[in-house]
């Protein structure tokens, strides 16, 4: 697939993000998207062809591969990238709605359509919660599907139609495990950034509301 759409989406969201949000965009674009396209995709490219078992029983290798790799690491990683990026569309759509509303009424309704306040603040917070939720769900999914964040060199399979317990070998396990750890580390970093940004926006909004009430009370 072409990753141009995801790149354009992240670039568009960058205009309406806070400083922390821009760091998140940089991490996703440089340390996840570019690493995926430039290196990780090629490592898992022929994973099925390079999966070998010490028996030539018809169907045995396919069944064992499907058992140990129910979903390809790289396809799951691609799905994760898409899912954690799409909540940002909510912010883009909300800004577009504000701009269209101003055009329809032919007057200035907002100080700036891209300023994070009011309804746009709620949309932004929802997008942060969704992104954090997707990150956590995919980390748990990785852990459950592959029994931890590791890629073994040798797996033993006794599933029919294999006549007995057979040894199956995974190609480039060390290289794959390094990229898997990199995936987990960048996901955790993105979760931390999302939580920091969420806390920052809530704290900033709370202080703003408190000052407004305090000023009204003094007046």
TrEMBL record:
Keywords for this protein: Cell junction, Cell membrane, Gap junction, Membrane, Transmembrane, Transmembrane helix
UniProt-recorded Gene Ontology molecular function terms: gap junction channel activity
Alphabetical list of Pfam families matching this protein: Connexin
Top-level division of the source organism's lineage: Eukaryota
Record-linked InterPro entries: Connexin, Connexin_CCC, Connexin_CS, Connexin_N, Connexin_N_sf
Transmembrane spans: 21-39, 77-97, 118-143, 178-203
GO biological processes: cell-cell signaling
Stretches assigned to the Connexin N-terminal domain: 42-75
Lipid bilayer topology: Multi-pass membrane protein
PROSITE patterns in alphabetical order: CONNEXINS_2 (PS00408)
Coiled-coil portions: none
PANTHER family xref list: CONNEXIN, GAP JUNCTION BETA-7 PROTEIN
Subunit details: A connexon is composed of a hexamer of connexins.
Function: One gap junction consists of a cluster of closely packed pairs of transmembrane channels, the connexons, through which materials of low MW diffuse from one cell to a neighboring cell.
Family label: Belongs to the connexin family.
Protein name per its UniProtKB record: Gap junction protein
């Amino acid at each position: 697939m072409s990753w141009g759409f995801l790149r354009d989406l992240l670039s568009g969201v960058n205009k309406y993000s806070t400083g922390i949000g821009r760091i998140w965009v940089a991490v996703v674009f440089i340390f996840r998207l570019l690493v995926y396209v430039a290196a990780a995709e090629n490592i898992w490219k022929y994973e099925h062809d390079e999966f070998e078992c010490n028996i030539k029983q018809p169907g045995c290798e396919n069944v064992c591969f499907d058992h140990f790799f129910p979903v390809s690491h790289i396809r799951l990683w691609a799905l994760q990238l898409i899912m954690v990026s799409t909540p940002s569309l909510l912010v883009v759509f909300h800004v577009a709605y504000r701009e269209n509303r101003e055009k329809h009424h032919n007057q200035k309704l907002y100080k700036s359509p891209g300023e994070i306040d009011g309804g746009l603040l709620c949309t932004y917070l929802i997008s942060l919660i969704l992104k954090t939720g997707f990150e956590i769900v995919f980390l748990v999914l990785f852990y459950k599907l592959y029994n931890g964040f590791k890629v073994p060199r040798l797996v033993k399979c006794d599933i029919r139609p294999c006549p007995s317990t057979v040894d199956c070998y995974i190609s480039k396990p060390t290289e794959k495990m390094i990229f898997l750890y990199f995936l987990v580390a960048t996901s955790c970093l993105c979760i931390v950034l999302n939580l920091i940004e969420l806390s920052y926006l809530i704290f900033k909004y709370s202080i703003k509301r408190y000052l407004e009430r305090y000023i009204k009370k003094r007046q």
